[in-house]
Amino acid sequence: MTELDTFPAPSPLSLTTDRLLLRQWIDADREPFATMNADPAVMEHFPAAMTHEQSDALVDRIIEGWGTHGFGLWALEVRETGRFIGFTGLSVPRFEAHFIPAVEVGWRLSKDAWGNGYATEAARASLAYGFGPAGLAEIVSFTATTNVPSQRVMQRIGMSHDPAEDFDHPRLEKGHRLERHVLYRISRAQWEASQ
Question: What InterPro entries does the record tag this protein with (predicted)?
């Protein structure tokens, strides 16, 4: 039995930070999420933009993941305006790599929400939930080597990078511009020491 087999644990309906609400998904999120996933700037570090149908299927998988694992990707909302700006949270990668099984902290925000520190703020709340109520021992994050903004978020939330652990993403063909990925990690002990 792995650490991931111990779920589902009780999951919160929402988390709040100074400026953000991390909450469960509602139907009204689907349209702005699809618009965001079709934006070439937002999807620059992914293999392709998503169709509306693909975006809706992703929402369905996210919602299903909450029931399976007891944690997941929260819809992200700016508290002051109530505006949906993307997602942040925890997920279980579904591919084979040297660090799997693992739990990943991840985020995707609409372009008009960039540059405000929202990803960092929400990712910190996700780590607190992961190492607190979810009881995880370690959380990872990974992205294409070209995605410097996300790597900066990983660094700001206290994750560490060992270049020896970088990997070729198995779902991308050899030579793809995004094939090479960096891996960041943080343990519960490292997180606790930073609090």
Answer: Acyl_CoA_acyltransferase, GNAT_dom, N-acetyltransferase
